[in-house]
């Protein structure tokens, strides 16, 4: 009893296809990597990386208490912030020359401006 040669070739093709799928799966299990035969982008490379947050946080020095923090903690204490006074003086000088920031619009003014539409004027026939 002999098996047809074409049948043997078909079985060999099926066995080869099965092995080409099974071997990478076993390799992935051995080397603890993800099995992705369709090669879909999963972001696994990024997810395996170490987190950067702790190292970045350790690079920068810890936040030191600022002058504004002290003023907020002790509002009854009379304090003098030289940098803030200098900034305010600079702004007042700019405003006196007309170079300061424009005034903020109130809620009423912004609604009025948004509500107005320009009327189209037809050209006069000559």
Tell me what the structure shows:
- The protein has 126 residues and is mainly α.
- The chain contains six helices and no strands.
- The chain starts with a helix and ends in an 11-residue tail after the last helix.
Describe the structure concisely for a colleague.
The protein is mainly α and 126 residues long.
Order of helices and strands: HHHHHH
Report, as a whole number of angstroms, the end-to-end distance.
108 Å
Large-scale geometry:
elongated
What is the count of DSSP helices, taking H or I runs of 4+ residues?
6
Average per-residue pLDDT, rounded, comes to: 83
Q: Which ranges are low-confidence, i.e. pLDDT below 50, for 5 or more consecutive residues?
A: none
Category from helices, strands and their pairing: mainly alpha
Proportion of β residues? under 5%
Topology:
Elements: H1 5-30, H2 44-48, H3 53-59, H4 67-73, H5 82-96, H6 107-115
Entry keywords:
126 residues, mainly alpha
